[in-house]
Design goal:
The chain has 14 helices and 16 strands. It has helices at 17-28, 53-61, 65-71, 93-96, 107-121, 149-155, 223-229, 237-242, 283-300, 304-332, 337-353, 355-360, 363-366, 370-373; strands at residues 9-13, 32-37, 48-51, 72-74, 77-82, 87-92, 103-106, 124-127, 140-142, 161-173, 180-186, 189-196, 200-208, 219-221, 247-254, 266-268. The radius of gyration is 20 Å and the shape is globular.
């Protein structure tokens, strides 16, 4: 049975990628959706996102493909390089995954597309609504991020683990629009960069350090600290960092995937359910998957408790596996000494002998079709 969401009231807490995607997916199935966003306006600090085919299948199914293509770039490859700038291996997405949609986009542009589509579909978005505790509504969706109050209501207070890694995020003007993501791997640090539409370039740089940093993306820092941490890197990195005039810094923390995602009335998704380290480029993608499958489960049966239980059962194993893979990459990017030399040599050989085999290790991520999963 489908159509169980018709005219049902749903309240979504959070107006980010997770909340707006969920609101749109729910509204297009007939739900009466209200989004509560604590900020006075829906806006994002400068940051880029990589959207892989698993997420793009959802965004295309929501009718957003044409709008997103205007404000994003296709990603043709992932290029792994050592700290000097020398190539280690290039993973050719266009060649080995033809027809799949990998896109590079500024987070703010994705938010704008989602917000416009949600409002046009009839979603009510109430700004300046900072809730102190979960409101008593029939169905409450917590898309309220890392410090989710809905997650706390479901699971109690939890203490994340500081990884000993600090990350910087910046966006710079750049006319080199080569559509690929580049990863520069050094001892105890790495830097990821890719172009964005509009003549911009996204930079994320991660350093192992004992210095404590607060969690969250909104802490400004002196660009000189970023340049000092990556002073030994070569290739295009020095030129990129010289153009950084504003940067944000945050500490990387490991969180457990939430033990409890729902209680029959409340449910969580995105970072509220499964915060992840940024080493698989799947944080936003998992949230987008969650949103579609949550809406599909709720629409399939009028039994809300059964629907939310099915949603958790479908999503928890996959998100747990992706979070674990991101944790592993945190180590792989920062190898030192003989281990780093051996790993890079193996990648170089693999790239020459069987480049498709390296990329096929991620088939379980990219082949996943959320649209079919909960059909």
């Amino acid at each position: 049975m489908h159509g169980a969401l018709q005219s049902r009231p749903v309240t979504v807490v959070g107006g980010g990628v997770a909340g707006l995607t969920a609101a749109l997916a729910l509204r297009l199935r007939g739900a009466d959706v209200t989004v509560l966003e604590r900020a006075p306006a829906i806006a994002e600090v400068g940051a880029g996102l990589q959207l892989s085919p698993n997420a793009m299948r959802v965004l295309d199914a929501l009718g957003l493909g044409p709008a997103l293509d205007v404000v994003s770039l296709p990603s043709r490859a992932v290029r792994l390089r050592d700290a000097s700038g020398a190539d280690v291996v290039r993973l050719d997405l266009a060649r080995h995954r033809p027809g799949d949609r990998f896109r590079l986009i500024h987070r703010a542009r994705l938010i704008e597309v989602l917000e416009q589509a949600a409002r046009q579909a009839g979603v009510r978005i109430e700004l300046g609504r900072d809730i102190a505790s979960p409101p008593e509504v029939p169905l409450l969706i917590g898309a309220d991020g890392l410090h989710s109050r809905i997650r706390t209501a479901l699971n109690g207070r939890e203490v994340p683990f500081f990884t000993g890694q600090t990350a910087w995020r910046a966006v710079i003007p750049d006319t080199d629009g080569t559509p690929e993501a580049q990863v520069f791997m050094g001892s105890g640090r790495h830097l990821v960069s890719y172009p964005l539409a509009g003549g911009l370039r996204n930079i994320v740089a991660v350093l192992e350090t004992r210095d404590w940093q607060d969690e969250g993306w909104s802490h400004p820092d002196d660009p000189a600290n970023l340049r000092a941490a990556f002073a030994g890197f070569g290739g295009p990195v020095p030129g990129w960092l010289a153009r950084v005039d504003a940067v944000h810094v945050w500490g990387l923390f490991r969180h457990d995937v939430a033990a409890r995602w729902q209680d029959g009335r409340m449910a969580i998704l995105g970072d509220a359910a499964h915060p992840t380290l940024p080493f698989m480029a799947q944080g936003a993608c998992m949230a987008i998957e969650d949103a579609w499958i949550l809406a599909a489960c709720l629409d399939a049966t009028p039994d809300q408790g059964a629907a939310l239980s099915r949603y958790q059962n479908l999503r928890k194993p996959r998100t747990t596996r992706i979070v674990a893979a991101a944790n592993d990459n945190a180590r792989n990017y920062h190898l030192t000494g003989p281990k780093r030399l051996a790993a890079h040599a193996a990648l170089r050989i693999g790239g020459k002998v069987a480049p498709g085999a390296i990329l096929s290790r991620f088939d379980w991520i990219y082949d996943f079709d959320p649209v079919a999963e909960a059909a």
